[in-house]
Design brief:
Keywords: Signal. With 124 residues, the protein is of the alpha+beta class. The chain has one domain (28-119). It contains one helix and eight strands, in the order αββββββββ. The chain has an eight-stranded mixed beta sheet with strand order 1-2-3-4-8-7-6-5, with no helix packed on it.
Protein backbone atom coordinates (compact mmCIF):
# COMPACT_ATOMS: atom_id res chain seq x y z
CA UNK A 1 0.00 0.00 0.00
CA UNK A 2 1.49 3.42 -0.96
CA UNK A 3 2.39 5.69 1.89
CA UNK A 4 0.77 9.13 1.99
CA UNK A 5 2.91 12.14 2.87
CA UNK A 6 1.15 15.29 4.07
CA UNK A 7 1.93 18.27 1.81
CA UNK A 8 4.10 20.03 4.43
CA UNK A 9 6.25 16.95 4.94
CA UNK A 10 6.57 16.43 1.20
CA UNK A 11 7.63 20.04 0.67
CA UNK A 12 10.20 19.72 3.44
CA UNK A 13 11.57 16.50 1.95
CA UNK A 14 11.83 18.05 -1.53
CA UNK A 15 13.48 21.16 -0.09
CA UNK A 16 16.05 19.13 1.84
CA UNK A 17 16.79 16.99 -1.21
CA UNK A 18 17.19 20.09 -3.39
CA UNK A 19 19.46 21.73 -0.83
CA UNK A 20 21.66 18.64 -0.67
CA UNK A 21 21.81 18.32 -4.45
CA UNK A 22 22.52 22.04 -4.81
CA UNK A 23 25.41 21.79 -2.38
CA UNK A 24 26.89 18.88 -4.29
CA UNK A 25 26.57 20.82 -7.55
CA UNK A 26 27.87 24.13 -6.18
CA UNK A 27 30.65 25.72 -8.17
CA UNK A 28 34.25 25.51 -7.16
CA UNK A 29 35.19 29.00 -8.35
CA UNK A 30 36.07 32.35 -6.78
CA UNK A 31 35.85 35.64 -8.65
CA UNK A 32 37.73 38.86 -7.90
CA UNK A 33 37.86 42.21 -9.65
CA UNK A 34 41.29 43.60 -10.49
CA UNK A 35 42.17 46.39 -8.03
CA UNK A 36 42.99 48.88 -10.82
CA UNK A 37 40.26 51.51 -10.62
CA UNK A 38 39.80 52.05 -14.37
CA UNK A 39 39.99 48.39 -15.44
CA UNK A 40 36.80 46.35 -15.74
CA UNK A 41 38.51 42.95 -15.45
CA UNK A 42 37.37 40.08 -13.22
CA UNK A 43 39.59 37.10 -12.43
CA UNK A 44 38.24 33.55 -12.05
CA UNK A 45 39.96 30.94 -9.86
CA UNK A 46 39.31 27.22 -9.57
CA UNK A 47 39.76 26.83 -5.79
CA UNK A 48 40.82 23.17 -6.02
CA UNK A 49 43.31 23.37 -8.89
CA UNK A 50 44.51 26.98 -8.77
CA UNK A 51 43.75 27.56 -12.46
CA UNK A 52 43.21 31.28 -13.20
CA UNK A 53 41.35 32.95 -16.07
CA UNK A 54 39.92 36.45 -16.56
CA UNK A 55 37.19 38.29 -18.46
CA UNK A 56 36.40 41.92 -19.16
CA UNK A 57 33.94 44.03 -21.11
CA UNK A 58 34.92 45.18 -24.56
CA UNK A 59 33.34 47.67 -26.96
CA UNK A 60 32.19 46.46 -30.36
CA UNK A 61 30.67 48.95 -32.79
CA UNK A 62 27.00 48.38 -33.51
CA UNK A 63 26.47 46.05 -30.54
CA UNK A 64 26.01 46.23 -26.78
CA UNK A 65 29.61 45.06 -26.48
CA UNK A 66 31.37 41.75 -25.94
CA UNK A 67 32.80 39.75 -23.09
CA UNK A 68 36.52 39.30 -23.70
CA UNK A 69 37.92 36.31 -21.87
CA UNK A 70 41.55 35.33 -21.37
CA UNK A 71 42.41 31.67 -20.94
CA UNK A 72 45.15 30.41 -18.62
CA UNK A 73 48.63 30.77 -20.07
CA UNK A 74 52.08 30.20 -18.56
CA UNK A 75 51.83 29.45 -14.83
CA UNK A 76 48.06 30.07 -14.70
CA UNK A 77 47.01 26.50 -15.49
CA UNK A 78 46.20 23.86 -12.89
CA UNK A 79 48.66 23.57 -10.01
CA UNK A 80 48.91 20.74 -7.49
CA UNK A 81 45.64 19.98 -5.69
CA UNK A 82 45.17 22.32 -2.72
CA UNK A 83 42.92 25.10 -1.45
CA UNK A 84 43.52 28.28 -3.47
CA UNK A 85 42.15 31.82 -3.16
CA UNK A 86 42.51 35.18 -4.91
CA UNK A 87 43.61 38.32 -3.07
CA UNK A 88 43.72 41.84 -4.49
CA UNK A 89 46.33 44.33 -3.41
CA UNK A 90 45.14 47.77 -2.37
CA UNK A 91 47.24 49.37 -5.11
CA UNK A 92 44.74 51.30 -7.22
CA UNK A 93 46.84 50.96 -10.40
CA UNK A 94 47.47 47.19 -10.14
CA UNK A 95 45.86 45.10 -12.88
CA UNK A 96 46.84 41.73 -11.43
CA UNK A 97 45.85 39.68 -8.41
CA UNK A 98 47.59 37.31 -6.01
CA UNK A 99 46.83 33.58 -6.19
CA UNK A 100 47.46 32.13 -2.72
CA UNK A 101 47.66 28.53 -1.57
CA UNK A 102 45.86 28.54 1.77
CA UNK A 103 47.39 25.23 2.89
CA UNK A 104 51.08 26.08 2.58
CA UNK A 105 51.27 29.87 2.23
CA UNK A 106 52.69 29.93 -1.30
CA UNK A 107 51.60 32.77 -3.56
CA UNK A 108 52.05 34.08 -7.08
CA UNK A 109 50.98 37.15 -9.05
CA UNK A 110 48.58 36.64 -11.96
CA UNK A 111 47.84 39.17 -14.70
CA UNK A 112 46.85 39.41 -18.35
CA UNK A 113 49.75 39.42 -20.79
CA UNK A 114 48.79 39.78 -24.46
CA UNK A 115 45.84 37.36 -24.80
CA UNK A 116 46.43 35.00 -21.83
CA UNK A 117 46.45 35.08 -18.04
CA UNK A 118 49.96 34.36 -16.77
CA UNK A 119 51.17 33.79 -13.22
CA UNK A 120 54.59 33.99 -11.65
CA UNK A 121 55.88 30.78 -10.02
CA UNK A 122 54.46 30.03 -6.57
CA UNK A 123 56.81 31.24 -3.83
CA UNK A 124 56.93 32.04 -0.11
Amino acid sequence: MPRFFPPAALCLAIGLFSLGAGGALAGNYDFLAAPERDLNRVYRLDRATGEVGACQYGLKEGTVGVTLCYEPGQGAGPQGPSDYALVASSHEREGGVFRVDLRNGLMSICYVLNDKVVCTPLAK
